[in-house]
Structure formats: structure tokens, C-alpha cells
Please model this.
Amino acid sequence: MAEIVFDKVSKEYRMGEVTIHAAKQVSFQVEKGELCIILGPSGAGKSTVLNLLGGMETVTSGKIFSAGKDITAMNDLELTDYRRYKIGFVFQFYNLIPNLTAVENVELAKQVCKSPLEPEEALRIVGLKDRIHNFPAQLSGGEQQRVAIARAICKNPDLLLCDEPTGALDTETGQTVLGVLSDISRKMRKTVIIITHNSLLAPITDRLIEMKNGKVVRESVQESPADLEGIKW
Amino acid sequence: MVTMLQKKIFRDIGENRWSFLIIVCICTLGIALFSGVNLYTSTMENAMTDYYMRANLADFWIYKADVSEADLERIQALPDVKMAQRRKILEVGLIGEINATLYLHATGDQATINIPELLDGSLLDGTETDALLLDSRFAKANGLFPGDFLSFDAGGQQKQWLIKGIIRNVEYIYYAPEGLTLPDYQKYGFAYINASALPQVPYNELILSLNGDTTRSQEEIITEIRETLGGANILSRMHQSSCREIEHDLVGIKQIGMLFPIAFFLTAALVTWITVGRMMENQRQHLGTLRSLGYPKREIMGRYALYGVLITIPSMILGWLISRNLIAEFLYRMGIAYYTIEETGVDFFSPHFFWAVLCVAVVTCGAAFLSCKRSLAIMPAALMRPKPPAQGHRILLERISPFWRNLSFSGKIVTRNLFRNKARMLMGLVGIIGSTSLILCGFGLTNSINDMLKKAFDETMRHDVEIKLKNPVPLESAADIYEILRDAQSIDAAMAFSVYLYGSNGSVQNPYMVVMDDQQSSLHFTGSDGREVKFPDNGVLITPRMAKALDTEIGDVITAERLDGTVIPLEVANIVDFPVGDEIYISRTAFSKISSLPFSVRTLLVRGQKLDLSALQDDPRISLIETKADMESNMLILLERLRSLQIILISFAGLLAIAVMMVLGHMNYHERIRELATLKVLGFRQKEMKRLVLRENIWITIFGLPFGAITGFGLLRVILVQATTADMEIRPYISAGSILLGCALILAFTVFVNHIMGGKFKSIDMVASLKSVE
Ligand SMILES: Nc1ncnc2c1ncn2[C@@H]1O[C@H](COP(=O)(O)OP(=O)(O)OP(=O)(O)O)[C@@H](O)[C@H]1O
Ligand SMILES: [Mg+2]
Model:
């Protein structure tokens, strides 16, 4: 079984009379250690899929397997443990805690895992070694995003989920951030799933999943992905 | 457009409904307590004033051996006197089945002052010589009705008296005959008869009422009357027992009912102010958006002031309902039982209610308006960004590196959170300090009263039984009583008579002067330093209250005047701590030096256990035998109303504490929901989240408790100083047990609210909470 398996997963939101189908019978797989990108227009259901995989929401129907375990069958406590030990999540809007310094924000994640990286080390990986004692307000958006990534990787998770990590950043900063993420996948052998609007990223990935209207419209595997440096933005 | 804005505000309130509801509760409690207690006192005052007017209550009661026709005319001719009437008064013992004492008032013609209020039967027509109008309480207690007969011996004639009517009288609204702490309706009553029924008894009482518009002081009028009559015992309403008792009663409740609710209100107002301010602060981005959409400032502010209105109106209605139907009604039921007056029920409003509502309106609308205005002064663009956390710097504690390094990670976070968010901490502290001090003050009232009683009954009074004689007798004539009490450890005879004391500051006091043996062992006097004070050979012992009222110090000489006009100079020998009563004490030796009056016994103070007092029960010379236990329980009953007030105060303080904690918890929850969602995504367990986020509430509580205790003691002190009357002084005292209990309660509330808030962590929607920048 692949590392991640989506098996006919549907997610509906009921709003009074109307039912919104955010995900319809979504099925795909991701192998261990892959760098995977989910592409698609706004409202396609990308975030929905990622949130389901991150154990932050529950499915309406279908099954999701992560490392062989069915997370749709987990209860609240098990889901918390799942998030705690398996998942690193990076948000579009960083979500750092404003009154903790960079290193403390990372340390916060360290508190809850079994084999964490040292926060300083995590921050070094994202290239913020010199700014560890700054508060989020003293950092630029890109730097904050990198702190958020450091926080995610510090947990040393098996699975790194990033929902538009470059969405609020300019292209150059975005590139740095993506570089960091692809490095993590390649060098640390982690499964990384990134949501993005930017189809230019496609060549560097191992796997590309395209979504539209809550459905997976294309799933492609790339045997020899290009290097990030080689891409023209 | 306008309706959209309104719609948005209603939706905001919906989202914040818990904080909003709790604020409404806090305001309701404030309004209810303040206006409830005051509604009771004002109802009582109105009822009394009204009754005094209707029944034309006398302004003065004047006692003189023989009030002649000429005396009456001379008094009537005085400038300020509106009406005057002579009466014959006589105390008689009933003969027959009922063993009781009746106090008779006889008027020559229809009563025009202190007019009796007929409840049953008919009034006297002025000719009856063997009919009376009987006290309703006495009649009820003894099962008497119009048409029944009573027999007693009045003015030398023993005869049957027909009860013609059952009445109430304005001069007996509260009737505890002299020497009694509490009414005893079965044994003591009063009755009105025609003067012609007592031909042998002289007119010995004169009552008069003044013109309402007199400009002269009571003292001046009293002096004038005394000169006109050539010496007489004159009681004003301040001294007449019914009026005085009512007055004292209400003063105590009024002071407590004013100061405590004000403190309560202050806490409520501060918490409300900060909460509404914070609610508005959390709206700043919306304000920015509205501004950038082109809404004028004035309109936005006007709309947000709606917050205030929406808090004020429900709390006004609820507050009124609780104040009238719960608090005032409860106190009224407790209070009215002691008074013989028509039960008209609690008034609908008192001005206090409107003041309270106005305050709530000002605080809520003001807070909304002001913080809205403050936000709107910032440019819309800046407003829309989240408030730049002014957190670029470290808190002071971090500079103390050894301390900081030894703190655990969560300890660091909790500490920093605590000091970073000033508004949150301030609100927490205000709430905690306020409610702690209110609870402790409530407990303290009870403690102080108990302490006072303990001091009075255990430390000062060493005797076990008090025997009061109807009339003073020479010591020799009481020899047989001494004989009956031969098993007693000691018997101290005391002479007591009423005197007027004139202070150098112009005040007049009317205490009893008590003369006792130099070597008496019944009363244990202590000075302000707690050390025993023996009877001095010269001068009197007075209470600190009396010293304050007369503005005298040890060594001063004050003037005392007996009712017959004899003037005695008194030196203040010492000021002694005597918690109950307004008597002044002097030794026989000292008394013999300043007065030629022979010693006569009025009261016997007896020490001894298991005395057989039955032989004295029917002694005609004795008016009252009271054991210490009786006195103590009577005192407790007397203080019952104060206690019922305390129950209300303590429970309201507790409710306030819970409400404050709840609103604190909710505000924190709402403001930090993003942070909480982030923690949840990171995989924090509920317990860990609580430790990080909720522990600071416990610290705030622990930090606030000592200050709360100090403030509480201060509040108690102020209240008790205000409530001190000439014959009772309560020292502020909060027992260690109460402090522990109070603090434990507050801490328990904090833990309870934390528990509830912690439970809400489960339902945080991570995705929704983290969706946008907000
Ligand atoms: N809580 C919700 N309630 C109702 N509908 C929702 C909710 N969350 C998402 N949706 C709907 O589900 C659909 C998919 O949303 P989703 O956030 O997954 O899109 P997305 O692909 O991430 O879009 P974007 O690129 O804009 O972030 C959308 O149509 C959205 O309106
Ligand atoms: Mg999305």
C-alpha cells in the first residue's frame, strides 16, 4: 500500500437547503518520500483534501489511509496523536503565535513530539539562523513563512502538508520557500504535499495531482523531476 | 445601507453571545442589588413617614408629675407648637388568667395626636369609664377580641374592662418595653382609655406636634419647653423608643445597603467597561473595512453605541424584577414582622433604580463609544491590518536571566502572556479583587457581628442573670431577693437613671447613668489597649462612641443633667471598650462625691450557675428576669435582618465572581481562538492547551487574592464605621477561616470556569479558525 491512499473520498458542507460538494469521490495515492503538488483553480477542493489528510476535518464518505492506517476511523484522541506525531502543517497565513519569538514558536512544536529536531537546527535549515530571537512582528512575510516551515519540520513529521505556502509571498521569496520544501523532501526523505496555483512548479515534482470542481481530473507521476534552480519563474 | 450595518452588529453580538449575556448578567446583578436594598429602605421610610403624617405622630413626649390645664395652655401658646394634648399614663398588671403588663394612655377628649388606627370593633365615644382600645399584637398573642373583658387594678379601682376596639398606634410601631431587647407581645401591650376612667390619676404626659415649617432647632425648642414647664423629661422622636428603634434599624441597613452595592457596582462597571472596550477592540478590522467602504465615523459610532443600549435594556428589566420581587421583597418580609404597621407591600420604584440604570447606560454606551472613537481616529488602512503586536520587546522578568532560564517552556509562555496583554490582566485583576473583596466583606460582616456578641457576652458581661426592678428601691428592701439568691457567686446591685449629657460641641446625648459598687465583678471593663480597667474613685467610664459623639477626651469634664433638672459635673475617667449599649458607668464612691442622691437598686446583676429563679418569677417588684442566654438569643434575633441582608450580599458577590470569571474566560477564548486552533493543529492535547492558555487565569487569581482581601477589609471598615450607632459598635473583623473560605471559593470559581473553557477547546474548528488573516 502506498504511503497515502485516498479512496473515494467525499466531503459535503450542508448550508441549510444547499449542499456544497467540496470533494467528490476523490481517489489518489502518494508514495513515501515523494514531493507532490496539488494544482487547481480556486474552489477546486484542494484545501479540503489537505485538511482531511491532516486530520483537521472529517470525511463525509470514503476512506483515507496514511501510512497504512485508516484516519477516517480515528476518534478525536487518535486524530490528535496523528497530528502530533505524523503531520507537519504549513499554512498560507503562517499562523505564528505573535508573542513568541521565532525560536519559541518552533520550540512550541518541539514540546509535543517524540523525536524532534533541535529548534535552532530547524531554523538553520530554513535559513533563519540569525533571526531566531525575533518576534513574528519583526520578521517579513517570507521569513515568517519559513519560521512556520521550521515549526513543521522541527516535529520531524512523516508527512509535511503545505497549503499555498507561497500564496502571500512574492515570487522570489516564494522560490526560496519552495526550495526549502523540496530540499526537505529530497534530503530528508519526507513525503511533502504542496498546494499551489503555480503550474510552473509542475516539472520539479514527483507527482502532480490536478483538481477541478472537487474532483481529481489528472494524476501524473514524473520519473526524473527537474531541479528547482532550472525553472524560469 | 444602515440596516446592513445594524445587521452586522446584531450578528457580532450573536457571535459574542456568551460574553454579551454574561455582561448583561453582571449589569443586572449590579442594578438589582443596588436598587433592591435601597428600594427596601426607601419603602420602609416612605411607609413610616406616611404613617407618621396620617396619624399625626407627636414630635415630643413630655413627662411631668402633674401637667396642669395651665401648663397645657402655656405650651399651646408657644410659637412652634401646632397641637398639644395631655394624657394620663399608667402601667398596670392584669389580674386573672393573663399574666401581662398593659401600658395605658388616657385622653380627655378624642386623640388628635398619635391617633389610634381602628382595626376591629369600635372607637371610644368619650364617656366610657370601663372600656379600652387594645393593642392588636397583644390581642392576637393572647387571643382577645372586641367584647372580651380584661381585669386589672387601675388607680386604686379593680374592675372589668371591656375591649371595645382593637387598634394599632403610630407611637407603638415597634414596641419593646424598656429593658427588653425584643418585643414580647404576650406579656406587654398598650391600651387607650378615656381620662374619666382614671379619676384619681393626674395628667402626667404631654404630647405635642410642631408646625412643619419651624426654623428652630430641636435643642432650642426643648430648652424652651423645659423652661415653660419648669423642668420635665422631654423625649423627642430621636429618643422615643419606637421611633428610635426604627431609625437605628434602617440606618444600619441603609449604610450597608448603600456602600456594599456601590462597591459591587464599581466592580461590575469596571469589568463591563473593559469587556465592552475589548469587544470593540476586536472589531477594529471591521471598523477599518466599514470606514474604507465610506461609512461616516459618526454613523459607525452611533451604531456601535447600540452595544450599550442592548446591554442596558435587558439588564434594566431583569434588574428591576430581581430588585423588587426578590431582594426588596425578601427584606421587607423579614423587616415588617417586627413592625406593627399596615402591610402595603414594596414600592414599585425608588430613585436608586434610575440612577443605577443611568450608570449602566453611561458605562456600556460610553465604553463602546469611546473605544470605537479611539479606533476610528486611526486611518482605515492601518485599522484593517491586525493590531501590530506591541510585543517587539521582552518583559522585564526576562531580563532577570537566572529566573527566566529556570522557567519551563510553558512557564515562560504563561508568564509572557500574562504581562503582555495588559487589558486582559487588568480586567482579570479588577474582577478578582472586586469579587474577592465583596465576598470577604460579606463574610466579615457576619464575623464582626459574632465577634461583637462574643466580646459583649463572654468578655464584658461576667454575670449570668439580670434582674430588673419595676421601681428603684433602697438596698435594704431587696434583702429578701438577696436571700433567695443566696447560692449565687455574687450579686451586684446597680442604680440606673436617665441623664442628659451636653458635649462641648453642642450635641446632647441621653444615656443611662449606671452606678455600681466599686468592687463589682459583673462587668469587666477593658481599655482601648485591651487591658482591664477598674472602677476609678473619681469620674465616669464612657464608651468610645459616646466620647466621639460628645467630642470629649479622658480628663475632660462634661455636664450631666438629671431629668428633674439637677446638674452633675462628670469627669471622664476613662474610655472603655463596651460594644453594646450607650450607658455610662460610675462607682458608688465616685458618685457619692458628686451627688447627694442616695443609692437605690434598679437592677441586680447575678453571677452563678443553676440558680433557682422560680421564686422570683411572680415577684411584683420585678419587671424582668433575663438570663445571659436569653439576652444573647434576643440579640441574635434582633440582628437577624442584618444577617438576611448579608446572605443576599454574599450570594451576589459569589454570582459576580462567577460572572466575572466567565466573561474573562470567554473573552480570552475568543481573542485567542486562532492561537488555540494553531496549537490544536500542532497536535497539542487538551490538557496541554489548558496548561498553556488557562493557567494564567489561576495566576491572575492568586495574584489578585491578597489585594482583594485588603480591599475587602477596607470596605468592611468603612461600612461598619458608617453603621455604628450610639448604642452599638461593630469592629471590623474577618476571621482566618472566612479569608480561607473566601479565597478558596474564588479559586474554585476560577478552576471551574477554566474547566468549562477547556471543554470548549474540543469544539474548535481548526480549519475555519485559521482560514484568513482576520
Ligand atoms: N466550511 C465550509 N462551508 C461551506 N463550504 C465550504 C467550506 N469550506 C470550503 N467550502 C467550499 O468547498 C469548496 C472547496 O473549497 P476549498 O477551500 O477546498 O477550495 P480550494 O481549492 O482550496 O480553493 P483556493 O485555491 O481558493 O484556496 C469551495 O467551493 C468552498 O466554497
Ligand atoms: Mg485553499
Remarks:
- The interface with chain B takes residues 47, 51, 54, 56-57, 76-77, 80-85, 87, 89, 91, 93, 95, 97-100, 104, 107-109, 111-113, 135-138, 151, 155 of chain A (CB under 8 Å).
- Residues 126 and 193 of chain A are 17 Å apart (CA to CA).
- The pocket of magnesium ion (ligand 2) is lined by residues A 46-47, 163 (CB under 6 Å).
